[in-house]
Recover the amino acids of this structure.
């Protein structure tokens, strides 16, 4: 596709359930980012990949959050034992190059609701 | 780390008038300042950006100004149109870093 694709668009999880969110970046994009956006707030950084290497995971809120990008393309954000405070929109973004502050293209996000 | 403050949180403007949104940042090492527009149910979309070696940048009806001394930057939209209604976010990136630090957003409403 032409843009960043995220799936599912919506996810409802029962508290304690594990979830996996998928991101398909723009083909050839080196950098991939995950952000968390709470209702009415700006996106907050979670983690950053350069190809398959996870270079920054300082924004992951707890060890229940895990992200991977094993082949340097598709990425998965996994949340274990979900809690109500995990309810948010999870945004994925990709950019063509690294270290050059190039434009980041965002997907539409996955809205996670934990009940 | 970097901290970005944005105001106002809401802004209503008559169609055809101008809108201004202001942001301040805390870390003088920040060197890249993008502005994003987010429509309901969509991801943020870059509308304009500015780097720290430039004081002003313009793209048709949209302009951004940067004051490095005061550590603030502003978005200016002229001749506003109904399709400009959205939430706008400013952001900053520290030199040598990759992650965006976003402001809290401004909900802009254009009144026909």
């Amino acid at each position: 596709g032409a843009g960043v694709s995220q799936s599912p668009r919506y996810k409802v999880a029962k508290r304690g359930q594990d979830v996996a969110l998928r991101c398909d970046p723009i083909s050839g994009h080196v950098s991939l980012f995950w952000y968390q956006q709470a209702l009415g707030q700006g996106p907050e950084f979670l983690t950053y990949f350069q190809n398959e290497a996870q270079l920054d995971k300082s924004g992951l809120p707890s060890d229940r959050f895990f992200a991977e990008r094993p082949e340097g393309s598709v990425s998965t954000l996994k949340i274990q034992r979900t809690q109500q405070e995990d309810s948010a929109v999870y945004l994925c973004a990709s950019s063509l190059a690294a270290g050059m502050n190039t434009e980041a293209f965002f997907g539409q996000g996955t809205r996670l609701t934990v009940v | 780390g970097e901290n970005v403050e944005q105001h106002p949180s809401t802004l209503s403007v008559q169609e055809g008038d101008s809108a201004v949104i202001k942001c301040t940042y805390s870390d003088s090492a920040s060197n890249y300042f993008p502005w994003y527009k987010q429509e309901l149910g969509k991801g943020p979309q870059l509308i304009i950006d500015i780097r720290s070696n430039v004081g002003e940048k313009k793209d048709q009806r949209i302009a951004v100004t940067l004051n490095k001394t005061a550590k603030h930057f502003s978005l200016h939209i002229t001749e506003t149109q109904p399709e400009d209604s959205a939430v706008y976010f400013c952001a900053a990136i520290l030199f040598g870093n990759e992650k965006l630090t976003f402001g809290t957003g401004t909900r802009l409403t254009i009144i026909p």
Q: What stands out?
A: The mean pLDDT of chain B is 95.
